[in-house]
Amino acid sequence: MYKYSVSILGTGFIGLCSAACFANKDIKVLASTHNEKKASMINDGIAPFYEADLQEMMNDIKAKKPELLQCLLDPIKAILETDISMITQGTPMREDKSINLGYIESTAREIGEALKQKNNYHLVVVRSTVVPGTSRNLVGRIITEVSGKIPGKDFGLCMQPEFLAEGRSIEDTLKPDRIVIGEFDEKSGAMLQEFYEYFYGDHLKNCPILRMNLESAELVKYGNNCLLSTKISYANEFANLAQLVPNVDIVQVMKGVGLDYRISDRFLGAGVGFGGSCFHKDVNAIRAWSKSKGYHSRLLKAVLDINDDQAIRIVDIAEELAGDLKNKRITLLGLAFKPGTDDMRQAASIRVVNELRNRGVKDIVGYDPKANETAELELGNKIAYANSIEQALKGSECTLLITEWDDFKTLTPDDFKEYMKTPNLVDGRRLYNYDRFNSALPFRAIGRINLE
Ligand code: UDX
């Protein structure tokens, strides 16, 4: 017998990383998905997507205690055989940019069906990012309607937002900086707190547990992602101001700002803008939600507008440097939304390609160390795909650095000069030493212009 048994309903980044981390710590986990291929991969000990350290952890579980992590195609069975169920389904963005709660709704129904057959108290924890009111008014209500059970008496309900970033999901799951528990009632919150006291042990000395109501916890997650996005757009706004004055460098400016103990320089990296599966989706979702309640968030609109405009800015900078780009070959170094992933969701490269094409540029070559394939699914034949840095630069008349992969960090001015037809380089992520590159080739960087 294990002290805890948990069903994880949804096997994306949050779900599978939690499942693996829990199982690795002697907690019995029944994950569930409706995707047969994914389930059989997980049962074979194979991670269905790449995430740092996940495969190693799954290997370890498979070798030592395979019974601790199983994946079922039947969520009801998974719920019935466990004491705690965590909803880790995706909440994608709809066409109108509001949140799509379809997967949350169907999972709540499945929990309701299971609880109808269960007599013991069961704790339900929403861990997906959901707009305020969802845990109580959608999840809690549907479970009650379908099961006939009473929240607070027959089942508990919590909302625990998740802050993990791609590429760091395992580390973030094992070492969070805080745990936020939104609770329907004291009993629900206490049960989840006990579970995490067991799971985290000593780590909790440096990691406060904050307890609050369901809606506050739901809003914490948006507060978090919106502030991080705001910091990035703020740095980009100042990059644009810095470009009004010769030789002001945004990197130095943000370093100076970030050293203020109240601010920190993290997420003040100016560049070609944020992408990824969360920032756009969440800023848009909370904006659409607040609009539906009659409040128009001017700040969040500005955050998104500034971010989108960075694609226009980098193309403007490229034209200042290389002249009309229309009949030139343009290279994009990096396509993924950040280094270390092949994820193209909302990647800045997409906006840059669209902007280049709006200006009539047809000859665009892209190269990414990991994301060429996923980029092709997203961008199709809008660009050509190179198999190496050298091939990407060959014959090019202007290169735009879009993703700051380590592979690009080691390039020297001579590399660009050797491979490119005309070695115009625009640094969209402030990867290169400005003085070194600026003195060696026609060079521009976001957030700094030269004294002519
Ligand atoms: C983010 C949050 O960090 C995480 O807490 C949340 O749970 C999910 O969303 P993620 O999207 O995986 O995680 O990546 P992150 O490392 O935060 O970067 C997001 C984007 O912001 C990337 O496109 C990155 O290039 C950009 N960024 C980040 C900047 O442009 N400047 C910065 O200073 C930092």
Describe the structure.
Helix content is 45%, strand content 13%. The chain has 18 helices and 14 strands. α13 links the parallel β9 and β10. α5 packs parallel to α6, α9 runs parallel beside α12 and α12 packs across α13. The mean pLDDT is 97.
In short:
The protein has 452 residues and is α/β, with parallel strands linked by helices. The protein contains 18 helices and 14 strands.
Q: Keywords, please?
A:
Rossmann fold; alpha/beta; binds uridine-5'-diphosphate-xylopyranose; 8-stranded mixed β-sheet; 452 residues; 6-stranded parallel β-sheet; 14 strands; 45% helix; single chain
Measured by DSSP, the beta-strand proportion falls in: 5-15%
Uncertain ranges: none
The CATH architecture of the largest domain: 3-Layer(aba) Sandwich
Seen as an oligomer or otherwise, the chain set is single chain
Largest sheet: 8 strands, mixed
> What order do the strands of the largest sheet run in, or round the barrel if closed?
3-2-1-4-5-6-7-8
State the distance separating the first and last CA atoms. 74 Å
Number of helices: 18
Structural domain tally: 2
CATH superfamily of the largest domain: NAD(P)-binding Rossmann-like Domain
* Rg over alpha carbons: 24 Å
Structural class: alpha/beta
Describe the global form. Answer: elongated
Helix-strand layout with pairing:
Layout (H helix, E strand, L loop, with lengths): L4 E5 L3 H11 L4 E5 L3 H8 L10 H11 L4 E4 L2 H6 L3 E4 L14 H15 L5 E5 L7 H14 L7 E5 L9 H6 L4 E5 L2 H15 L8 E5 H29 L7 H9 L20 H14 L5 H25 L6 E5 L14 H11 L4 E5 L4 H8 L4 E2 L3 H5 L4 E4 L4 H4 L3 H7 L5 E3 L6 H7 L2 E3 L7
Bound molecules: uridine-5'-diphosphate-xylopyranose.
